[in-house]
User: Fold F-BAR domain-containing protein from Rousettus aegyptiacus.
Amino acid sequence: MTSPAKFKKDKEIIAEYDTQVKEIRAQLTEQMKCLDQQCELRVQLLQDLQDFFRKKAEIEMDYSRNLEKLAERFLAKTRSTKDQQFKKDQNVLSPVNCWNLLLNQVKRESRDHTTLSDIYLNNIIPRFVQVSEDSGRLFKKSKEVGQQLQDDLMKVLNELYSVMKTYHMYNADSISAQSKLKEAEKQEEKQIGKSVKQEDRQTPRSPDSSSNVRIEEKHVRRSSVKKIEKMKEKRQAKYTENKLKAIKARNEYLLALEATNASVFKYYIHDLSDLIDCCDLGYHASLNRALRTFLSAELNLEQSKHEGLDAIENAVENLDATSDKQRLMEMYNNVFCPPMKFEFQPHMGDMASQLCAQQPVQSELVQRCQQLQSRLSTLKIENEEVKKTMEATLQTIQDIVTVEDFDVSDCFQYSNSMESVKSTVSETFMSKPSIAKRRANQQETEQFYFTKMKEYLEGRNLITKLQAKHDLLQKTLGESQRTDCSLARRSSTVRKQDSSQAIPLVVESCIRFISRHGKRDFSLARICAESGRTSRNSLYSKHRD
Amino acid sequence: MTSPAKFKKDKEIIAEYDTQVKEIRAQLTEQMKCLDQQCELRVQLLQDLQDFFRKKAEIEMDYSRNLEKLAERFLAKTRSTKDQQFKKDQNVLSPVNCWNLLLNQVKRESRDHTTLSDIYLNNIIPRFVQVSEDSGRLFKKSKEVGQQLQDDLMKVLNELYSVMKTYHMYNADSISAQSKLKEAEKQEEKQIGKSVKQEDRQTPRSPDSSSNVRIEEKHVRRSSVKKIEKMKEKRQAKYTENKLKAIKARNEYLLALEATNASVFKYYIHDLSDLIDCCDLGYHASLNRALRTFLSAELNLEQSKHEGLDAIENAVENLDATSDKQRLMEMYNNVFCPPMKFEFQPHMGDMASQLCAQQPVQSELVQRCQQLQSRLSTLKIENEEVKKTMEATLQTIQDIVTVEDFDVSDCFQYSNSMESVKSTVSETFMSKPSIAKRRANQQETEQFYFTKMKEYLEGRNLITKLQAKHDLLQKTLGESQRTDCSLARRSSTVRKQDSSQAIPLVVESCIRFISRHGKRDFSLARICAESGRTSRNSLYSKHRD
Assistant:
C-alpha cells in the first residue's frame, strides 16, 4: 500500500484473489474429506467393537461350558454315592467343605460367564449397532449442513469478487477522468499563459496600432479560453462524478471485505466446530453407556467371583483338625464311645467288694503302696521329659507345615517381555532346592516325633495302670486307718451280713466315695456318652485342654 | 451285689466278661477300619483335587489362548496399518483410546490366565501330591501306634481275666474251707451236746453204779470231742489260710479292675484322640497352604483384572467430544486452520484504503447504518429464539443419550433355579418396548434439532455479514464526525498526497484503530493459528465457551 513504486493492476489483484480463494476451496474440500474419513473410522471402530464382543461372547460361553463340565464331573461323582447319610456326614469335615465350596465356585463362575456372554450379545452389541446407525445418520445430516455452510461461504467470496471488480472499474474511470481533467487544466494553463504574453507585447507604446487585428486576436483567444474552461468544467464534473462512484465502489468493497472476513472467521472458528459437534451428537455419550454396560457386567462378575472366593477363604480359615476330630467321633459315636466300666463281680455271693486293707495284708499293702509311689514319681519324671521332647518336635513340625509360602503375587508381576512369564512361574514352587530340603527335614522330624510318641504312650500306659492301683491302695489304706476293723472282726461281720443281707454302712460309704471321687471322670464320661453327643464334645475338649 | 437270691458262678461271670471284652474288641477293629476309611477318603479327596486343578489348568489355558487370539486378531489389523503416524494420531481420540485399552485388557487377562494355569500345574497340584504322600505315610505310622495301643489294652484285659479267675479259685477254696469248718463246728456242737446229756443221765442218785462203763464211755467221748476239736482247728486254719488267699486274690482283682478301667478310660479318651491327631499331623495346615495358594492366585488375577478395568473406566470417563474435536483439528491443522485474512487491495495505487464517510456519501451511509442496526436487532431477536429452541432440543437429546441404563447387576441376581438365567438376561436391553420408543423419540428430536440448527446457522450467517458492515459503518461514521474532512477538501488532499507520497495522519490512525479494535478477534485467531497449535486450542475453547 505504502509502496507506490509499482501500482497493482486489476489482473494482478484478481489473480492473487483467485489464488487465495482456490486455497480456501481446497481446504473446504479437505474438510469434507476429513469428516468422511472420521465417519468411516468411526463406523469401522464400531464394527470392530461388535466383532470383538461377538467373538468374546463365544469365548466366555466356551469357558462357561468347560467350567460347567468340570463341576459336573465331580458333583456327579458325589451324587452317585448311594449312602446319602455318609455323604452328609463327610460334608461336616472341614476339608470336604472346602472341596464342596471349590466346586460351587466353579459352578458360580460358569453361570456368571454365561451371563457375561449373554450381556455381550444381547445388550452391548446391540448398543454398538445403534451407535453405528446413529453415527452414520448424523454424519450424513451434518455433511448436508456443512455443504450448505460452504456454499454460503463461497457465495460471500463471489460477492467480494464482484464488488472488487466494480471498484476496479469505477476507480479506473475515476483515474481516467482525473487525467483528462488534468489535461484540460494543463491546456487552460497554457492558454492563459499565451494570452498574458500577447497582452504584454500588445499593450506597451502603441495603443491604437493594428488594434482591429488585436481585438480580433483577443476575441479568438478569449473564445478558445472559454472553450477550454468549458471542457475543463465538463471534465471536472465528469471526474467528480466518477470519483464519487469510485468512492462508493471502494466503500462497497471495503464493506464486503469486512463482511467476508467476518464470515470466513465465523466459518472456521464457529461453523466448523459446530459441524463437528453435530457429527458427534450423542456419540461419546452412547459409547460411554455401551462401555459402562461392559464395565458393569465385568464388575458384577468380579464381585460374584469375589464373594465365592470369600466363602472359600472362610472355609480354609476354618480348616481345623480338632473340630474335625470331634465331628468324626460324633459321626462314629458307637465306634468311639467308651465301653461300660468293668464292675466288680462278687464270686458266689462274695460280700466284700472293696479292697481289704486290714492286717495281715495291711503292712504288705502299705509297702506296696510306697513302692508304687516311688516308682510312679520316677516314671512320671522320665515320661514328662519324653513328653517335652515330643512336644518340641511337634512344634518344629507345626512350624514347617504352617510356613507362609502361599503368596504368588510375584507370578503376576511381569517383566516387560511377555515371553518370560512361563519360566518365572514354573520355578516358584517345585524347583526351589529349599523345598526339597524342607521336605526331607520334615520327614526326619516326623520320624523322630513318632519314636518319641511311642515312648511316651508306653510310659503313659504303665503310669496309668500303676497310678490307678496306687490311688486305690492309698485311698483304702487311708480309710482303713480310720475304720479300725480287723480281719477277725470283719469275718464275723461278714457272717452277720450273710444273715441280715444288709450292706454295712462303712462299705456303702466307701462305694459312694469311690464313685464320687476316685472314678469321677470315667463315670462322667460314661454318663455323657450315653446321654448324648453334644455334652460329650465339651467333655472331650475339657479332657484335652 | 445286693441280691443274694442267686449267686453268680465262675462260668456266668466269665461269660459276661467275655461278652464285654468281645464288644470292646469289635469296637477296636471298627476304630481301625474307621481310620482306614478316613485315610482312603482323604487320599481320594486329594486325588480329586489334583484332577480338578489339572482339568481347570487346561480350561484356563484354553481360555487364555482364545483371549490371546482375540486380541491378536485386532492388534494385527492395527499393526498392518501402513501409516504409523496416522495410527498414532488416531490413538489420541478418546474412543480409540478405549478400544486400545479393551484390547490391552484382553491381552492382560490372557496372560493372567496363563499364569493361573501355570500356578495350578506347578505349585498347587504338587502341593496336593505332597499332602497325599504325607497323609498316607502318617496314616501307616499312626496305625502301627494304634495297633500297639490296642494290643496293650488287650493285655490289660487278659490280665484282668486271669486275676479274676484266680479270685474265683481262691474264693471257691475259701468257701469250701468255710463250709468244712462249719461242718466241723456242727459235729463239735453235736458231740458236746451228747456228752452233756449222758452226764445228766449218769450223775443223779447212783454215783458208783457202773462207773467203769461211764469212765470208759467218758473216755471215748472225750477222745471223740478232742478229735473233732482237732479237726475243727485244722479246718479253721485251712479256712483262715484260704480266706487270706481269697482276700489277696480279691484285692488283686480289685486292683486289676481299677487299672483296667483306668486303661480303658485312657485309651478311649486320650489314646484315640492322640491317634487321630497323629493321622492329621500337618494335614489341615498343608491343605490350608495349598488352598491359600489357590486363593492368592485368584486374588492376584482379580486385582490385575481390576486394575485393567480401572484403566478402561478412566478412559470411558474421559470420553469427551470437545477434546476429541480439538485433537482432530490439531491433527489436521492445515485443513482446519483459518486462511489469511482478505486485505484491501488498492487499485492502481489508490491511497484511500478506508471507508469514506464524508459528504456527499455520509448521509447515505448514516441512513444505511441505521437500517442495518434495526434489521440486525430484529434478526438477533429472531435467531436468539431459534437458538433457544435448538439448545432445548439439544438438551433433550443429551438427556436421552446420557440416561444411566448401563447397570446390569440384576442379571447377576439369580433366582434359585439356574435354568431361568438366559431368558432373564436376554430381555434386559433389547426387548424392552421403552427402548424402541426411546429410539424413535431420539430420532424425531434429532430431526427437529437439525431443522432448527440449519435455521440458526442461516440466521447467524446473515447476522455476521450485516454486523460486520454495520460495525465498520458505525466506527467510521463516529470517527468522521470528529475528523471534519469533506469530499472537496479530501480531493485536494489527495492531490497534495499525490505529490508528497505520504499517508496522512488521519488515515494512519484509522488503520491502527481498526486493526486494534474492530478486527481484533480475527487478527488474534490468525496470529495464533500461525504461531502454533497450543495457543490456538485455548482460543478455540474461549470462543466456544
